[in-house]
Each structure stands twice: as structure tokens, then as C-alpha cells.
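@channel sequence for tomorrow's demo:
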Amino acid sequence: MAMTVVEKILARASGRASGKAGEVVEPAVDLVMSHENAALVINQFLEIFKGTGMEARIWDPSKVAIIFDHRVPAESPKTATNHKRVREFVAKQGIAKFHDIRGDLGGICHQILPENGYVRPGAVVLGTDSHTTSHGALGAFAFGIGATEMASVWTLGVALNIEVPQTIRVVVKGKLPDLVSPKDVILHIVGRLTAEGANFRVLEFHGDTIQAMNTSGRLVLCNMSVEAGATSGIVPADEETLRYLREEAGVTDPLTPVTPDRDAVYERVIEVDAAKLEPQIACPHTVDNVKPIGAVAGTKVHQIVIGSCTNGRLDDLEVAARILKGKKVAKDVRMLVFPASGRIYAQALLKGFVGDFVQAGAVVMNPGCGPCLGVHEGALGDGETALSTTNRNFKGRMGNPTAEVYLCSPAVAAASALTGTITDPRTVAGGAR
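C-alpha cells (generated this afternoon):
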């Protein structure tokens, strides 16, 4: 029976020889992740054992990762107390994959998992965060669930009542033009599909553009697949996946890529001509309100944000630093930069990118979710406009429902910081390679 990547992964995890879309399965889980909302999961988890006389124990602590990233350092006594409670639970349960607020090992959960080699091809990965879809970049089936569902997984080690999703095959072909990036590719795709166009589907990425793309870029595609309503995005594991896991994540144990059968059945196929793309902008107040940059160029912005689980990696910081080097951020613009992890921050320091940002007038923040979340760091004032490399621009997403948020690539963000308006990076000196 011919199968897609996700059909194969769920069949294996469910102890079946084969599987097809529409079946309901209960797959064994390879990795689960929570951030500060682990406090909510703990409440539900303890409730399961209440009155049973049994000790509340996680089924396999080695398969649980908890990362503090949304409100770090703690912005309130409530958050600090939740952090304290989670730390105590982690110690009691023996959870080793715990990343506290640290300059060396901390960072955003969706960066911490891949860079530490926690995600493997063919794995089933669940997280209490919608952007858990990111980890499909490593050939895993990864998706977000709620706190109650996660509590049951902590208890049983399986995901209950999972319907095998239909798959949309996305074929991206052609060489990306200069200063057009994976962020532009996924914004274009979300704009085409709309915010509900891939509901309960998986986006499976193929094509020579994807094959040439590094893992950082693939993480961008899978991260934002959820913005089209997708349950997950996935790039079938290949040589780049293995290179990343071996050389950058330090994985030494055996890795087994899962690829689709040649005659796998897809719900539909969409094609993207990457060579014809230009920088894309998602306009307020929905991610699928996507326009080519020329349609919004000149729009005044008050705050520029570069970072997040979408675009806070080293190559993102590099392209922005190159555009900003030796120049100054416009005087009436605030520019915030937050690397995706402590490791990336250290690398950016060594390469001089942090110095370039600071000398240009940007503020380099600690790794974390910061302004993207809208409840901690970098909130917007009434009526202000932000241009951000983050992944969502709903009303109030960055802390103020009267503000407007545009989404873009790091190159667009850096170029716009110099002018104070949305600017095509190809028109800025230093932008061209």
C-alpha cells in the first residue's frame, strides 16, 4: 500500500504495517515538549492520579522536554512562581531535557529541540504550542496539542484518537532570487492557501528549492504551515537533515529517514515557482493577507522586530547584520533583535553580528519569545505599526489590539529599519550580495 510520509510514521508508531488517511490511531510518542505552560499540564496530570492512591509519575521522563521561553526572565511574581513550581516538578520527575533561563543552554523551544538533537526523522513529536509544526523540518510528524491532552500523554505515552490526516504535496522549484528567502516562500503559500486552506492537513514539501534549502529555512516553512491551518508541515528527511543532526546537533546514534512512496496518494498538489517570487508581506490583521512588497512599500513603521522561532537563527541574523553594518537605524524607529537561542546568541557575538546591531542602534534582547508573544517585552503603543519577522499578526498579537503588525523576512526588516518605512531590501545599498 502506497503511503505518504505521515501515513508511514503513524503506521509505525501505531504498530501497523500500513496506514491511510482517515484512520483513527493511537501512536506511541517519541518526544513531548512544553514551555511555561507546563504549569497547566502539571495541574491536569496530577488530577489524573487524584484519589487513586498511585504516585503521579511520567511514563518516560527521557522523552519529555520542558523549556522556559515565553516569559523570560519572569516579568511578574505569578510567572516566577509558576517557573518555581515547574522546576520542582522537573526535579521530582527526573526530566533531564529541561532548559531553564540560562545564557548558554536556554532559548526558544522550537530552536532548542532541533539544535540539541532531540527530534529525529520518523518521530512522533507533540508540544503544547501550535508552532510545534516546526519540527517537521527534520522529517518528524510534529503537531500541537492542549494541556489536558498532554497530561494524558505524560501518563500513557501514546496520543489518543489521532485521525491520520490527508496530505497536500507542495512542490517548490527554481532558484530563489537574491534576498528572497524561505520566509517569503511560506508567506506566499499561506496567502495562496488562506488561513483555513490546509485545515487538518499536512503540508509535505518537495522540489529542488527545498532540497537546496538548509535546515534553518525548512524550519521556517514547517513553523508557519500552521498559519494555513495545517496540522503539521514536513520535509522528508534527506542528506541535509542527516548533515544537520550529525554536524550541528551532535547526534551519533542511527538515523532512519522516512520518505513517501512514489505512488503515494495526495489530496492535491500545489506548485510554487520560486524563481518568480519577490519579498512578501503579510498585512494586518491576518497572516494570509499577503501582498508583494511593492504593494505596501513606504508604509511607516515604529518598531522593527527580528527574531522568534521563525527567524531568529544565525543565517537570519547574518543577512540583517550585513544590511545594517556601518549604518544607523532611522531615529524614529525602535529595532529589537532577539536570537532564537543562547547558542545562536554566542555565535552571533563571535561573528560580530551583535556589534553590528548595537552600533546601528538596535537593542539586542535575550533569547526568548519576547515581542512575538505580546505579553512580555516590546509591546506596541496605541496606533503604532510594527514590522516583524515573527509568525502571527492577529489583533493584539504583539500586545495592543489598536496597533498593526506586518510580517516579513529578516532582509526586509533590516532594510526597513534604515528608512523607517517598509522597504524592499534589494533597493538598499549593502542589501545585494
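heads up for whoever presents: The chain has two domains: 5-272, 280-427.
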